[in-house]
Design goal:
Blueprint: H1 6-16, H2 33-40, H3 44-54, H4 67-83, E1 86-87, E2 95-104, E3 110-114, E4 117-126, E5 132-138, E6 157-161, H5 173-189, E7 194-199, H6 205-214, E8 228-233, E9 240-246, E10 250-263, E11 274-280, H7 298-316, E12 325-331, H8 339-346, E13 355-361, E14 374-377, H9 385-393, E15 399-402, H10 416-420, E16 426-430, H11 450-468
Helix pairs in contact: 3-7, 4-7, 5-6, 7-11, 9-11
The protein binds zinc ion.
């Protein structure tokens, strides 16, 4: 019942904004016949077709990187071209290509000398990006204490006992690795270069290490190993001077693509200002267990991308084109830490000072109970964009509001945050919630509410039009 009295709520939200905001900032004219015609050409049938393609089993969860994500990116580029957009990438291409690095553990083992035992070969769970050579003095008796030592920065080799692993680690070696990266993070802060994990001979970590050697994986940025983690038998004596050489992880670069097109504004002066409409194209890839092995990501975020594509078609088919330019863009790597949008923000294809705002679409296909045809904006109080979008969208019968639970919480959790970090007014718009199918194979097209989604996209068109036409200009609220 979060949405009870939503209309009062929107009014309140607007009324509560600082007094300096003038009524003109929300003044919108009626939709023109041209706009009304384009708005009603946004139809359920095409929306269903688009989202069904993007979320089909064939797309295999659109992981970053994957051949399926490339297929999806090609599809977006084709659609942009068909809509009549101009490619924003190098030489008029629709692609902005970056390299994404996958990691595998070193193929060779670590070599250890301890006391009189020379060249003991050890299995590496992970190295870092360079070869590590360390010398330290370890005594068997203090091995256990070394795990918790309040290090003086001189301790290079720490020894810990094997940790209990989460159940998913059995078929997901990255989960096992992440458990150890978390555990060793405080030791890294104390100077650890290598952490030796004392294991039994039948430890599951040997299987995880074998998989990590054979198959490159993507490790979330925040869990990238900062020290080598090496397995050592419980029965191995560790007393004395220890030298260790751990080979480096192997990095493999794979090209990944943001897809970006522009619809140039018709006003020579306003055309260098751009309204950006964006969504992430990637999802979390295939599932590792269960009967249904595909995380379809229909709501997250095939729905948002469908919004971007549909809005590109709609804006391009207006007889009277907007004064400002519109940039349409889809990102890779959101699920891996907003990576594609960060790359775009670091290597902008349009001067970011001239980006009026980013309207980022996230999960617009499944309303919360009693919220059909309603959407909400993240980070509502940080700029006038939300209330301005609301003022325009209501003309299509769509309410855009400040969601008390999610608006602030999710402001930093999608690609808009990459642009906020660069001082651009950027918010995500969503028309759903974190439902039970979030990041599950059950986030399927059949669960989408297509009439709701269609209506929301119409509302987003009506909401964006006054900004694209230069009648409203969003402004940051400090
Ligand atoms: Zn998402």
């Amino acid at each position: 019942m979060i949405y009870r009295n939503y209309s009062v709520f929107v009014c309140l939200a607007i009324a509560l904004l600082p007094a300096a905001i003038t009524a003109e900032e929300f003044n919108v004219t009626l939709l023109t016949d041209d706009e009304q015609f384009v708005l009603s050409s946004i139809q359920e049938k095409q929306i269903l077709e688009t989202v069904s393609f993007l979320a089909s089993d064939k797309m295999n969860g659109r992981d970053t990187p994957s051949k399926e994500l490339n297929i999806a990116a090609n599809y977006v580029a084709e659609r942009f071209q068909k809509a009549g957009l101009e490619g924003l990438g190098p030489e008029g291409s629709f692609f902005q290509t970056a390299e994404f690095f996958c990691t595998s553990a070193p193929k060779t083992r670590a070599a250890m000398s301890v006391g009189s035992a020379k060249d003991v070969q050890l299995t590496v769970l992970t190295g870092i990006n360079e070869v590590i050579r360390v010398l330290d003095v370890v005594s068997d008796s203090d091995a256990a204490e070394r795990a918790s030592a309040s290090g003086d920065g001189k301790t290079k080799i720490f020894v810990i006992d094997e940790l209990p692993l989460p159940p998913q680690a059995a078929d997901n070696p990255v989960a096992a690795l992440v458990t150890y990266v978390r555990r060793t993070a405080p030791l890294v802060r104390q100077g650890a270069k290598v952490v030796l994990v004392r294991v039994s001979d039948d430890s599951i970590l040997f299987d995880a290490a074998a998989t990590l050697r054979q198959q490159p994986v993507t490790i979330p940025v925040q869990f990238e190993p900062q020290c080598a983690i090496v397995l050592v038998s419980k029965t191995q004596a560790l007393g004395g001077e220890v030298t260790l050489e751990v080979p480096a992880n192997i990095l493999q670069a794979t090209p990944v693509h943001n897809v970006a097109g522009v619809l140039r504004g018709i006003d020579p002066e306003a055309a260098n200002q751009a309204v950006m409409i964006s969504a992430h194209l990637d999802h979390i890839g295939p599932a590792s267990r269960g009967d249904d092995k595909v995380n379809n990501g229909a709501d997250d975020n095939a729905s948002g991308v469908t919004g971007v594509l549909t809005l590109a078609d709609a804006f391009a088919s207006l007889k009277e084109r907007p004064k400002r330019s519109l940039i349409f863009v889809t990102f890779w790597g959101e699920e891996k830490g907003l990576l594609g949008s960060k790359y775009f923000a670091e290597h902008p294809l349009w001067n970011l000072d001239d980006v009026v705002c980013d309207i980022n679409l996230e999960m617009i296909g499944r309303p919360e109970a009693h919220a059909d045809g309603k959407a909400w904006g993240t980070g509502w109080p940080h700029s006038t964009l939300g209330p301005q979008m609301a003022a325009g969208a209501i003309r299509a019968g769509v309410t855009i509001f400040h969601h008390e639970t999610f608006s602030e919480m999710l402001y930093a959790r999608s690609d808009n945050a990459s642009f906020v970090a660069k001082g651009v007014i950027a918010h995500s718009f969503s028309a759903g919630s974190l439902h039970n199918d979030y990041h599950q194979p059950t986030d399927e097209v059949e669960k989408l509410n297509i009439p709701h989604m269609t209506k929301i996209i119409q509302g987003l068109l009506a909401g964006t039009l006054p900004i694209a036409r230069g009648e409203l200009t969003p402004r940051a609220i400090p």
